Description:
By secondary structure, the chain is mostly beta strands. 9% of the residues lie in helices and 56% in strands. It contains one helix and six strands; from the N terminus they run ββββββα. It has a six-stranded antiparallel beta sheet with strand order 1-2-6-5-4-3, with no helix packed on it. A hairpin with a 2-residue loop joins β4 and β5. The longest helix is centred in the C-terminal third of the chain and has 8 residues, at 85-92. It is globular, with a radius of gyration of 14 Å.
Amino acid sequence: MPFDDKTMSAQPHRLVLEDRRSLTISGVSEVESFDERSILLRCAQGALSIHGSDLHIEELSLDGGDLRVAGLIDSLSYEDISEPTGILLSRLFR
């Protein structure tokens, strides 16, 4: 995705992945769900899905927007959260 000034937010967002075993994230606004295989977050740049095994949230500071995850991390993926869920549901049930 090309760089776009409009997608940048006031809160900085940063990911640091070390040896696929430790992930530090800044710019986290909400943890939507988590278990040992996946974590879903809302970040300054959109929704972030983390997939792996034996995942644990070691530190969480929503005041500062910081999160640290430990475990074997297989994938990280962003999803666009600009479309309200009601529109998506109405398309599914036409």
